[in-house]
Amino acid sequence: MSLIGKNIRTLRQKNGWSQGEVAKRLAISIPAFSKIETGITDVNISRLDQIATLFEVSTIDLISKEGEHHQSENAAEISMLREKIAFKEEEIISLQKKVIELYEELRNKDKAAG
C-alpha cells in the first residue's frame, strides 16, 4: 500500500466511513476508490485536492508521513519560542543587575549613616 493510500485509509477509518461512502462522495466507483486506497491507481492532483477537501485536511497531509508536515510547523514555533526565551533571559539579567546596584547603593547609604 502506498503512503498516500495509507493516509487516505486512515482518514476514512477515523471518519467511520466505508469505501462505498467515500466513493459516492467522490462520485467514483467503489473499485476505483479501492484502487486509490491500495495504491494500484496513481492519483492526480485534482483528485488529491478533492479527497483532501472531503476529509478536511491539506493535500500535504495526504502525501506526507504522519507528523512530517507538523514537524516543520513545530520548528517555526520552537524558533519563535527560543527567541522569546532569549529576550526574557536578557530582561532577567538586566533586572538582576538593577537589584544588585540598588542593594549596593542601600548598603553604601547605611555605611555612610552608621
Automatic annotation (TrEMBL):
<dbReference type="InterPro" id="IPR010982">
    <property type="entry name" value="Lambda_DNA-bd_dom_sf"/>
</dbReference>
<dbReference type="Pfam" id="PF13560">
    <property type="entry name" value="HTH_31"/>
</dbReference>
<feature type="coiled-coil region">
    <location>
        <begin position="78"/>
        <end position="105"/>
    </location>
</feature>
<protein>
    <submittedName>
        <fullName>Helix-turn-helix domain-containing protein</fullName>
    </submittedName>
</protein>
<dbReference type="InterPro" id="IPR001387">
    <property type="entry name" value="Cro/C1-type_HTH"/>
</dbReference>
<feature type="domain" description="HTH cro/C1-type">
    <location>
        <begin position="8"/>
        <end position="62"/>
    </location>
</feature>
<keyword id="KW-0238">DNA-binding</keyword>
<keyword id="KW-0175">Coiled coil</keyword>
<dbReference type="GO" id="GO:0003677">
    <property type="term" value="F:DNA binding"/>
</dbReference>
